[in-house]
Write a structure and sequence with these properties.
The protein is mostly helical. The chain has two helices and no strands.
Length: about 50
């Protein structure tokens, strides 16, 4: 079930970014630092 919702979310995200590129860019600029910090924490957690 988790994979299906993830795939649907990615598809919706792609459609949204094509339909509203300015809005998608604004959201991306707002969310990106959070995603980067989370991924860095996960990498550090996995490697240690």
């Amino acid at each position: 079930m988790g994979k299906i919702s993830l795939i649907i979310g990615i598809i919706i995200g792609i459609i949204f970014s094509v339909a509203f590129p300015e809005v998608a860019q604004t959201i991306n600029d707002a969310i990106m630092p959070t995603i980067q910090s989370i991924s860095e924490k996960m990498i550090n957690w996995i490697t240690t």
